[in-house]
Design goal:
single chain; mainly beta; 14-stranded antiparallel beta barrel; 1 helix; 15 strands
Length: 291
């Protein structure tokens, strides 16, 4: 039953995408953190389809996202055999964002993203549902901009609102930056086809455990949370007017992986070690737009 619902969501989304007259982009990402002795590994793959709809005032951005999260337990991890059903999680989301200008160079973007996130080991229910989203205001200056707001994004490993405070600008025609939270980055554009991006950002996931996962006779795990802060460098190359490929090498500055009870209290924290995070991304723009 749950797979029929998933297929229906994807089918409706794809038909909606190709009904639009505007640019459509498809992003595919894969990243991998290897497991170590007494340390859990993490594997993430995702697909996202974006399609804007321009109206008289402002524009809407529609997105459909699918992500798969795989936890790789080392053979000597304590009690690992008890958690073979909590090693693979998936999330399926649809988001709609609206952006518009206000006055005095201020603009805003509002985002609403209902998401199903679970190991889907039982029938879909309200516990699998998350409501992500947020609002961000932007003030533009001559060569820079200020962003203020708050977002809720389970792809960062948080199930609560976090602040957005960043200052963006250009140091030259080739160098731009973003300073703040949750993401800080520095971008160097080599030429029209190649660029480097150095960053510090959060990464993770938050999901429901559909089956019963008893830690002991008194503790029942119902949620899972993986959080990390990653610093790294991404190299991006535009293959042609439509295709762009990215290679990423990062390092986890910190990471935690834990099972939570119904009150979101930790009932079991697995051992994690800071490790390299490597990844590959591929982007396709339908209408020859390299952004």
């Amino acid at each position: 039953m749950r797979f029929r619902i998933v297929l229906l969501i994807v089918f409706i989304g794809i038909n909606t995408v190709f009904a639009q007259e505007n640019n459509v982009s498809v992003n595919v990402d894969f990243s991998y953190v290897p497991e170590q002795t007494n340390s859990v590994g993490f594997q993430n793959s995702s697909v996202e389809i974006n399609f804007p709809v321009y109206i008289k005032k402002g524009f809407f951005i529609n997105s459909i996202q699918y992500s798969s999260y795989k936890m790789n337990y080392p053979s000597n991890q304590e009690m690992v055999s008890s958690y073979i059903d909590v090693d693979c999680f998936k999330s399926i989301g649809y988001s709609i964002s609206y952006a518009n200008s206000i006055s005095n160079n201020w603009s805003y973007l509002v985002d609403v993203k209902p998401t199903l996130s679970s190991n889907f080991d039982s029938n879909i229910n309200k516990s699998d549902f998350l409501l992500n989203g947020g609002i961000v205001f932007t003030k533009k200056y001559k060569n820079s901009s200020l962003q203020l707001g708050a977002i809720k994004n389970s792809n960062f490993g948080f199930n609560k609102l976090i602040p957005v405070i960043s200052f963006n600008g250009n140091l030259s025609e080739k160098v731009s930056y973003k300073l703040g939270i949750p993401i800080t980055e520095l971008t160097y554009k080599v030429n029209q086809t190649n660029s480097f991006n150095a960053y510090v950002k959060p990464k993770g996931f938050y999901a429901n455990i559909g089956n019963e996962a008893y830690i002991d006779s008194d503790s029942l795990a119902e949620k899972v949370r993986y959080q990390s802060i990653i610093s790294g460098i991404n190299f991006s190359h535009a293959i042609d007017d439509n295709w762009k490929i990215g290679l990423n090498v990062g390092y986890q500055l910190s990471s935690t992986y834990e099972l939570l009870d119904k009150n979101k209290n930790s009932v079991l924290e697995f051992k994690t070690k800071n490790s390299f995070d490597v990844g590959l991304s591929l982007k396709f723009n339908l209408l020859n737009n390299k952004n």
